[in-house]
Every structure is written in structure tokens, then in C-alpha cells.
Amino acid sequence: xxxxxxxxxxxxxxxxxxxxxxxxxxxxxxxxxxxxxxxxxxxxxxxxxxxxxxxxxxxxxxxxxxxxxxxxxxxxxxxxxxxxxxxxxxxxxxxxxxxxxxxxxxxxxxxxxxxxxxxxxxxxxxxxxxxxxxxxxxxxxxxxxxxxxxxxxxxxxxxxxxxxxxxxxxxxxxxxxxxxxxxxxxxxxxxxxxxxxxxxxxxxxxxxxxxxxxxxxxxxxxxxxxxxxxxxxxxxxxxxxxxxxxxxxxxxxxxxxxxxxxxxxxxxxxxxxxxxxxxxxxxxxx
Length: 286
Fold this sequence. Notes:
Distance between the termini: 27 Å
Structural class: alpha+beta
Shape: globular
Largest sheet: 9 strands, mixed
CATH architecture of the largest domain: Alpha-Beta Barrel
Number of strands: 15
CATH class of the largest domain: Alpha Beta
Order of helices and strands: EEHEEHHEEHEHEEEEHEHEEEH
CATH topology of the largest domain: D-amino Acid Aminotransferase, Chain A, domain 2
CATH superfamily of the largest domain: D-amino Acid Aminotransferase, subunit A, domain 2
Helix content: 25-40%
């Protein structure tokens, strides 16, 4: 059966959702996206994702006029139309058509798509055994202006994720060109040292993840010391706990990095505690 999607102010079947071959998202990767999930038909932290999308659209001068309330109504309708409960949601925005040249002159017609599909959850066993990481030979440029935005230019992420797959790892840890820890292909990373939760500073040129922010909020609310710092790989290898986060996996413990065993307990005490607290936030959303 066709999936029902939202495309440029219309609810249509995905088989009828036509995009121009001159769309700049297709031609240049000139666009942005957000992914999130629902809990019991309720999108989790939708407003945060819309704000991040709006901020990035403003930075790149891509017109975007939808409000969080409008997108909430759109997603609710899509969930009903597609008979979905726990679902994956993706919003995609491109500069669209009507502007020529690499540097567009004037304002074209942007393309905005929202689609939903059944959520394929990570296996429960992984949260008990943890997953492995390897460090990539690819480095994140500290001056790259798009790394802190979720753009349609995702080929670097593809390459490092392929590197992980080829080496039998779940994901790849990227260092930046200053040799500091940045992030993984599709997730932020946290370490625990002496009951302190630490994540790479945004100065390392990382994506300001929504789940990353929630973890820092949970730490503050529960009296756990947390900090954003610049640090190298050696601190990750020697950490008491390591975990990665994104909106779909939530909080995933790391058991090995480059073959080195991490910590003594999987999941670690703080990772397990924070995952439980995270779950209480999602229960509220149901």
C-alpha cells in the first residue's frame, strides 16, 4: 500500500508525490532534514526539532514558514492516515526550484516533505550488551560550516558508517582535525569519569543533538555533574562508561572501542540511570 506523505501544503500518496528534476536538494544537496520518533502517536520533542530546522534554514537562507503547531497537526494526520503508533518521522526541506546558479539570486519555491513510517527499534539486547565503535581515519574539519547542521550533504556520514560496517562495528567515532573527539556518524557521544558525565563541546564542531541536550538537562535535574569539554581519544578509551545518543536509539552503551573494553559494567550505572529517566519523559508523551 502507498504511504501517505505531506508535500508542499498537500497530503498525498507517496507514489503521487512528484519532485522536480531541477530541485536543488537533488542537484546540490541544498537542503536540511530532521528525524525523530513518536511514543504512542505523540512526536517526542517535535518543537526542538522544528526550532533546529528553522535555525538552520535561516543560516542557509532557505525559506521555511511552518510552525511547530502546524507540523504537529501534519504529523498527527499522517499517523492516522498511515495507521501508525510508534513511528519514525522525517522532515526534509530543500531550497527547491526557481533559482539558478550555485549562488541563487532571488527567492525560489522551497520543497518541504514530511513522511512517517513504522519505527524499526534497535534490538533490546544491544542495550544490555552494548555496541562497538572504531575510530575513523576520516577527520572532521574544525572549520567546516555545515557540520553543526543536519544537511542533505550526508556522503561523509555514509562513508564512515560504511567503514564501521566493513569492520564489523556498530558505528565510527570521528576525531576532528585538531585530534579531538567529535561525534559518531549519526550520534553524539558521552563519557563518564568519576561520576561526571562529559560530552564534546560544540566547539569541536559537532551537531547540537536534541537527545544530547536532553541528557544534559537530565543530569542537571538529577544532581549529576555534567560538562562539555574538548578532549582526545585516550580519555574515551579510559572512561568508566561510554554511551552514544540520538532520537531513535535514545541512549546506547558502548562496550568496545577499537577492540578496547570499556568500563566494567554494561550498561554503566549512569548510562542505565539516565536511560530510565529518559524513558520517564517519553511516558509523559503517551
